[in-house]
Specification:
The chain is an alpha/beta fold. Helix content is about 70%, strand content about 10%. The strands form two sheets. The protein has a six-stranded mixed β-sheet, sandwiched between helices. The two termini are about 60 Å apart. Bound molecules: adenosine-5'-triphosphate. One of its GO terms (molecular function) is ATP binding.
Length: about 600
Amino acid sequence: MKDLIKKILFLFSKKEKLRFLLIFVMIIIAAVLETLGIGLIVPFVEIVMNSSSLSDNQILMSAYELFSFQSTNDFLIFSAIVLLSVFILKNIYLLFFQYVQSLVILNQQNQLSVRLFKSYITKPYTFHLQRNSANLLRNINNEVPRVIYGIILSGFQLLTELLVIACIFILLITIAPIPTAISSITLGGSVFLFNKIFRKKIRALGKESQAVSGNMIKWINQGLGASKEIKVMGNERFFVQSYLKESLRNARINRFRLMLEQSPKFFLEVMIISVILGTLLIIILQGKNTSNVVSMMALFAMAAFRLMPSLTRVMALVNGIRFNRPAVDTLYEDLILDTHKGMIKSEESSKNGTETIGNRERIYQKGIELKNVSFRYPEQTNYSIKNVSLSIPIGQSVAFIGESGAGKTTLVDLILGVLEPESGQILVDDISINQQINIWQRKIGYIPQTIYLSDDSIRSNVAFGVDPKNIDDTEVWRSLEQAKLKEFVESLPGKLDSFVGERGVRLSGGQRQRIGIARALYNNPEILVMDEATSALDNETEQEIMKAIDGLKEEKTILIIAHRLTTIENCDIIFQISKGQLKESVYKTKDAYSAV
Ligand SMILES: Nc1ncnc2c1ncn2[C@@H]1O[C@H](COP(=O)(O)OP(=O)(O)OP(=O)(O)O)[C@@H](O)[C@H]1O
């Protein structure tokens, strides 16, 4: 419990917590108004049924005298107006409360989802290598609402119900201490036992439900994501069956959960009836007179009538909170990791703050230098890069070659700064890239092996992640021309506005690759990094693009990972990588040689 509260408090800022406190206060006022409304009906009905009861009620009598009513009927009309006004005010308040509650709750849900998305998108690349995107999607879309509704809102409702129960308990214990004490112990004990028996099961179900909902998204993602391969292989059935299996697990969990939600009601009814009967027997055995017994009976029956739904709700809410508990753990773990990382990052940037700002417009002059760099992927024992030292002078074009799995992509990812070396240093113009990561990455145009295209226009795919109102069409056309795609785009009826389809399905493999190249060139980067970017192209197109890239050689530093010798024939330096190590360096131009 303490741990749960600590984690919840961590998830929200001080301002957000205050907003929740406001909701809680408003819930209590709503409960008081609800009770007041019901409470006022009883004396009103009493006066209607029997006007002489007016003189028995001190409060009513003083109101009667204060306003100097002439007859009971006048007083009745007045009471009816008061009662109606209380109900109108109460309902206006409740409407207002519902509005504030949905405003705060939905806003909080929104804020937490955005915070989580931001945290995922800014996490190190290694985080994404280890986590399945289906689970991240589930956390943002399903787990956040589970925390907001299943924990926060349920928590407030639980507190309100406990408050009501406490009030009724105080009332009962002052009127009939012994029967109340005995019945409370019996009832409380059995509720405690019931909870103890099912506590672990509910928590386990909550955890399982979390895993299952992630798996369900995963199977849909995989099935729809590889629809072509699946069609060709004809194994649609496997994916449908795998989804069905998870979906059935989900149904079983929900069936269990619903049973556990419903069963307290039946369990409590039996318990309350036994307690009332037991209490009556105690009262009778205590030898009190019959009229006293009848009024006690009425009191206990009324209390039971009010307590029953409250207790049922308390148990259902406690179960719900337990079921949804794993969602808090997941968000907490993902966000606390982010906070620590964020703290390190902000410390680093403040340390180098002056340098970072001062060099925003800097142009690299010397080169990139790797000093004894080693790297291992998380949870791996083998090093993917071992003790690599090399220099890349600015303005040179460099090729990385080597067998499949040699470590070329890993080495380039280290230079890009998306992976961090376990040991060694990567310097650009004698400064570690860690200390200038934002500036460094802004200077790079990167073309990966597989280009991710969004279901958007060619314009937005080339100027990827740029606000549409800031996109410069001249630059888009310029980069399309450099990527040898201008003619094709000009031939399309929609030109730059043409949509490429999900993951670019409306384009050929080569066209997709060239959009990727245009994207990397859009910002006119100083450094161009190509990871087998032309491997999907036919020889002729590749030659054409490489010619265009060669044309950029004067102004850019170019890093290319390539398999085909034709791709690298014009490079100044060739680094051969083998089993994570630098096996050979070939310097083809005098310039490159002297610069190293
Ligand atoms: N996310 C990862 N987790 C664990 N090991 C990885 C991961 N990515 C790559 N590796 C391993 O690191 C080594 C180097 O991989 P890398 O992708 O850098 O090779 P490569 O030379 O680019 O190969 P290719 O030419 O086939 O693309 C390989 O042994 C690979 O299995």
